[in-house]
Amino acid sequence: MASKPLSYNDYGVGWICALSEERTAATAMLDEKHDPLPISNPKDTNSYTLGAIGKHNVVVACLPEGEIGTNSAASVIMQLVNTFPSIKFGLLVGIGGGVPPRVRLGDVVVSTPVGEYPGVVQWDLGKATGTGFVRTGSLDRPPKVLLSALTTMKTNHEMEGHKISQFLEELAKKWPRLASKYAWTDRLKDTLFESENAKPTNNTWQAIFATPWQTIATLMSYLPGHKEPELIGRANNADTEVMGDERTPGDPKIHYGLIASGNQVIKDGSMRDEINARLGGQVCVEMEAAGMMNNFPCLVIRGICDYADSKKNDHWHGYAAGIAAAFAKELLQIVRPAEIDGEPSARDVLNQVYQSVGHIQLKVDKQEEKHILDWLSPIDYGLLHSDYYKRLQPGTGEWFLKRKEFQDWIKGSNDTLFCHGIPGAGKTILASLAINHLSLKFRGNSGIGITYVYFNYKRQEDQDFQKLLASLLKQLAGVAILYQKAPRSCTMNTQNKGHERHLRN
């Protein structure tokens, strides 16, 4: 244990897991484990393991037991970055389903940008159309500091090999009780099952494993006395050992590419193949990454434990969690603390995202509000009022505002204040003075609404009873607290039905 606990501000890396096995593997990979910190945020329901890998202080967080999916992952992230304000990026480390034949059990998959995709794609985010399912939205790319570290890592692996096996051996020595589950064992067998498509397609193993030798074998079957050979991938749905691409047991192959994330457990090979075809080829399917990548700077690392088909089981869970954690440890050893010191914290990034979304939403709301008000009445008496009020000479009409009749009327008299005069006497200008005075006097008072109409004999078509009331409603709606519910409902209902506005609405 560390000699003394650090502060919440001293931790810069968030390590997120979905399962207890993944958390165990992560904890076992720590170079040192730190004492728990005093509770600073009572609303944070996450459980943390604190420690260090190299010179990085790491916070390991896990989804609550029994909760999986993008929504749970997003909730854990929000609490993590609020409690640990200096977190710069996250690593989502754990198990996933591989897409064969390229990816095998016991391999490691890392999310990296591919073409138009940022590394993680939420395959179930979209809308159903007449021509099929159309995916909508996009997720964030992994942080540049991590992508740069991956390029260094690739070079190291080509020249010297990875350190995954080394770290698992160290795990077995340091934590003997974990060795049989999280380190390599010969009991693990990679048996590949045929895709469960009802009809052969380009995604089935028949197409994948078709070779010139199969064509020759088919021609030979027509020779007299020739016995029909048993072709690989057509073994009457029996278990088929993976052929080709020889692997050394316990020596994972690392893949970089697209990860498909969603809120549904995939246990169907045909569904997996359909998603693969839709996205143009991914290397892994899982359930939490999309909840993080949408607004949290992170990298996804998955150890492959199954093929996301009906033969899904738990046999490879421990080892897959172990190799993913080992890869994450090797990555952190490459990333230098100085490279992330100047990066904004994840909390700052999230705040910027929320502020941007807030500004966009405000603009959208303003546009929608203007649309509703214009629907109520196209006439803007505010422009007329401004024009008339500009004509008022300074000091003119003050006598009118001081009249007892006007003051009594303002104080709540039920009488109607009527001012009459000959044409051109200045009644309209005095009215603009009164309107401006009332608007200033009762500004901010939600219990009082100021409405007005400037009649013009040249616009009689806009001054019938219904249109005048619509204009008054428009003015009230522009400042009323509850207008977002009533007029919005009114306009949506009438527009959808193709009706004109009616007073009863």
Automatic annotation (TrEMBL):
UniProt keyword list: Repeat
Gene3D superfamilies on file: Nucleoside phosphorylase domain, P-loop containing nucleotide triphosphate hydrolases
Domain Nephrocystin 3-like N-terminal: start-end pairs: 395-480
Pfam families cross-referenced by the UniProt entry: NPHP3_N
InterPro entries named in the record: NLR-like, NPHP3-like_N, Nucleoside_phosphorylase_sf, P-loop_NTPase
BP GO annotations: nucleoside metabolic process
Molecular function (Gene Ontology), one example: catalytic activity
Name by which UniProt lists this protein: Nephrocystin 3-like N-terminal domain-containing protein
